[in-house]
What does this fold into?
Amino acid sequence: MGATIVEKIFSSRCGSPVRTGDVVMAPVDGAMIHDITGPLAIQKFYEMGGVRVFSPSKVIMLFDHQVPADSIEAAENQVFMRKFAAEQSIYNYDIHEGVCHQVTLEKGRVHPGDLVVGADSHTCMYGAVGAFATGIGSTDMGFVLKFGSLYFRVPESIRAEVTGEFQHRVGAKDLILMMAGKIGADGATYKAIEFTGETVGGMEMADRMTCTNMAIEMGAKAGIVPPDEVTWRYMAERGGAAPVPLASDPDATYAEKRTFEVSDLAPQVAIPHNVDQVVEVGKVAGTPVDQVFIGSCTNGRFEDLKSAAEVLGSLSFSDRVRVIVIPASRTEYLKALRAGLIEQFVTAGALVEAPCCGPCMGGAFGLLAPDEVSLSTSNRNFRGRQGSTAASVYLCSPATAAASAIRGEITDPREV
Amino acid sequence: MRVWKFGDNIDTDAIIPGRFLTIYDPAELARHAFEGTRDEFRLNVQKGDVVVGGRNFGCGSSREHAPLSLKGAGVEVVIARSFARIFYRNAVNTGLLPIVCDQADLIADGSEIVIDLTNQVIIAGKGRLPIEPVPGFLNAIVEKGGLVEYARSLTEVPLCTESRR
Ligand code: SF4
It folds into this structure.
């Protein structure tokens, strides 16, 4: 009987065949901590009697949620983590590189076939390069820092085959929102979602990241795209190793196989207050918005900013809207800067911030007042996620966000 | 045990909003538990109260602040029809017992219940609601009262690479 890519990764890490449902104490290839979940993970590491971390070169550390420090407490947490990094010889990207998931991938810290954990739920994004990556809490991370391994239950996989060609100004974010709507907020709980099919094969890495990033919004433990030429090219640009074949066997056992056709897909919007409340943009078109956020680990890459800029052209953003643009990393910021996108956004009336999580988490800046409406390219629209629990957050693609920011109300990007 | 009943898809932003994540002390976090979502909770919760949710309790972020804020409020047990994966693990790890009960919907807000772990049932009024056992591999952690205590009892971990060789 064949194996899924997830079973193969666990088998290779364990050195012998393992199957879905097996519980294994597996060694990890990478462990990511940031300024919010890191301090507690370090505290737990010490409480567990930790002295030296399992492998300093496998620990990825950076600050992105509250940067530059927006409170004395945040500053203190960062001091605490810097000390730990120095003491343990861990390389710390600190505050200047950008959002954790983007930085981890673009620095080549995760490879196809790796088993990686991060103290952040969107760690599942690393599946874009064909790794098994999952989010864990701080106490689990404390354990990982000490022992370099963790208990995993090898999950079932859902095979999501995506076919068809996107219409103009429709793309990966619309696909993943549509999938969240169909699968539901807990439809993939404890499982891995394997993204396959011609549409995924045709996607560049940026779009694949948008998809795997949101696997958690369906409850999934991981999202994974089997590595192909696109992956190996991405890895080669980062000094990665030579390609090794890694894919599910044709006779692998899946919990479920689903197909998604995108040829007729309209731009999608998740309406308040759950990510699986998804409608076509037309259903909510005309809804006035107070703030538009283009950024986050889901959609803060150069390709996302470019797609927003293409809709914008030489137009301006509506005076009624506060537009906040945040590139996901320093690298992506520089690409956008050199391509003239930053100038274009600022000229159109946007506020462009340095790479960080920004309003996505509602912890730093860009918070919403009661009754305000935000349209966001991030991944969560939970009540209170971006400020007041009486505010509303809608989620959409960068193209839809740009179109809506121009008109001051939710707008189909195909109409601008 | 007095019940605080919540609905489906209670996310971690609802349990503890993002702006309080620089806090790590459970007692301090408890002062903001469910802030803006259900303010009477933090004002009136008593030691030994139990939180009951519907499906997908604790979805969203990996923030351990969520189970810690409940523990800080004196809650030792959370019951739900189902849990989001990371919250479930975090709860076990921090010594908050997550109990899966398919009929959690039958438990009323403000009611008194008894949890009988030996017989794996919740006694709620006249009803006896079966509960699912904690998966075997997490039992040792539950028994120790959390992952820190469990980890302290280990000198080495039984890696799959070693046990299978
Ligand atoms: S951008 Fe948002 S979802 Fe991504 S890591 Fe930051 S807070 Fe989390």
In short: The CA atoms of residues 108 and 174 of chain A lie 27 Å apart.
